[in-house]
Specification:
Two copies of one chain form a homodimer. Chain A has 230 residues and is α+β, with helices and mostly antiparallel strands. Chain A folds into two domains: 7-132, Sandwich (Jelly Rolls); 147-226, Winged helix-like DNA-binding domain superfamily/Winged helix DNA-binding domain (Arc Repressor Mutant, subunit A). Helices cover 38% and strands 24% of the residues of chain A. Chain A contains eight helices and twelve strands. In chain A, the strands form three sheets. Chain A has a four-stranded antiparallel sheet. A four-stranded antiparallel sheet of chain A has the order 2-7-4-5. In chain A, helix 5 (149-164) crosses helix 6, helix 5 (149-164) packs antiparallel against helix 8 (219-225) and helix 6 crosses helix 7 (191-203). The longest helix of chain A is centred in the middle third of the chain and has 25 residues, at 122-146. Chain A binds chain B through residues 63, 65-67, 69, 71, 73, 85, 87-90, 94-95, 124, 127-128, 130-131, 133-135, 137-138, 140-142, 144-147, 185, 187-188, 228-229, and chain B through 63, 65-67, 69, 71, 73, 87-90, 94-95, 124, 127-128, 130-131, 133-135, 137-138, 140-142, 144-147, 185, 187-188, 228-229. Chain B binds a DNA duplex (30 and 30 nucleotides) through residues 148-150, 179-181, 189-193, 195-196, 198-199, 209-212.
DNA sequence: CGAACCTTTGACACAAATCAAGTCACGTGG
DNA sequence: CCACGTGACTTGATTTGTGTCAAAGGTTCG
């Protein structure tokens, strides 16, 4: 395996306070791997033997019910740590991570976790990340409990747009492949309902979509649909 | 204020590894306060200036929408730390805490947090607590997204029973006052629907309820209603 | 004794799930 | 390169679980 370049980590918050030599050490301990779209990085309930950093791509964090349904808890963007079960003193992963697009991640054995927490800024950033995720999940829960389906779907699309959107001709495109089924798994509804909503929005020119791709053409309109109170 | 007794803390996980003298120091820095039912201990978004330990009673952790609706995210039982925003590097509380029953809590200024994390076992227990709560919220989210109302309500009642239930004549009683409205705020439904469900269950002898009190008379039946897969 | 609040129950409406077809896009292999 | 198969998407018809509206009864407490 070729040596990984130090610039991969030097600008990321968990490592930004470290010396070049420390980053070198960290990289030399890392395993880099590519994951095809749809591949699981790790699964809920399995022994948490490694922790990860997403370099490129996007992940879905999902939980499944005994009934076989699955729901998408959140998405993870490049630069984020994930699978850091040890930060919460867990020895199994609390959810499953799936590559939503082709992705590249570094990973380290969990036995190095304690050592990593001694690097200045690393622990702090890990806990900040967890704090943000907890907040995000709470927000999703609140939406789920109080908002009608159309608003939930609008919120979900906006959230993905904000986390992964890139400007393109005539709108902001969600940065990873996403199906109607995926959106229904985020919002607790059915692919049929999501399809109807997106069709209606497309008719109104708020979004444009092709297979597995969504472009938000009028973000502001979508914000209105999401029902933010004035 | 009378001196607090060391036995208050010595058996609680966050402090169980400490010397008598350390517990003494911790108690001498603590403020003890009683909260009437319905009182807020702290509110979402406010500056997180203190952290807490619930000695007695029960709390509801709630989030409110701009629309004024509120949902109950989880309950906190005696012996648990709460308001530990600093553990996630936050400087505001992420949710509001309300006394569900008359409660007593100790609190310390957040400036002591760093010092507390040096006590053996304290940080570990704090993160375990957060991990459990994250798991619980994820479970609630999953239920909310996939289960019909009846199952959600059954799950919510069972969860409260498990966390706070006490054996009484002919059943297990939820350990704090709880209204239909409260349950609907936990499950994202209406007090009417909850009332209908509880009435039906009462007719079937699964629960018995008086004003603000619920006794689960046939826990096993309720588990079946909650739809655990076989 | 009255006010405040919790609870129950019925009637009705409607949003969204379910049921059901069918079209369209894409990748693969012959 | 075309045919085929699979997965994604759309759209209509029908059903139903829950929310909404409405009214009244019960309990607690000052």
């Amino acid at each position: 395996m070729p040596k990984l370049d130090e610039s991969l980590l030097s600008d990321l918050p968990p490592f930004s306070q470290l010396e070049r030599s420390q980053i070198r050490t960290i990289l030399d301990q890392a395993v880099s791997r590519r994951y095809d779209e749809g591949t699981a990085i790790f699964r809920e309930g399995h022994e948490a033997d490694r922790f990860y950093l997403l370099l490129d791509g996007y992940l879905r964090v999902i939980r499944s019910t005994e009934g076989g349904e699955e729901i998408i808890v959140l998405h993870i963007s490049p630069g984020q740590l994930f699978g850091i079960a040890k930060a919460l003193e867990r020895d199994t992963y609390p959810a499953t991570s799936i590559a939503a697009a082709e992705s590249i991640a570094l990973s380290w054995p969990m036995s190095l976790w304690t050592e990593f927490t001694t690097y200045p800024g690393f622990a702090t950033e890990s806990y900040k990340t967890l704090g943000r995720r907890l907040g995000e999940i709470q927000t999703t829960l609140t939406e789920m409990a109080t908002q009608a389906v159309e608003k939930r779907v609008a919120c979900a699309v906006l959230r993905m747009m904000n986390q992964s959107g890139r400007r393109t001709e005539g709108g902001v495109e969600i940065g990873f492949p996403i199906t109607r089924q995926n959106i229904s798994d985020m919002t607790g509804t059915t692919l049929h309902t999501v399809s109807r909503l997106l069709s209606a929005w497309e008719k109104d020119g708020v979004v444009a979509s092709r297979r597995k791709r969504i472009v938000v053409t009028k973000p502001h309109e979508l914000v209105l649909l999401s029902g933010v109170q004035g």
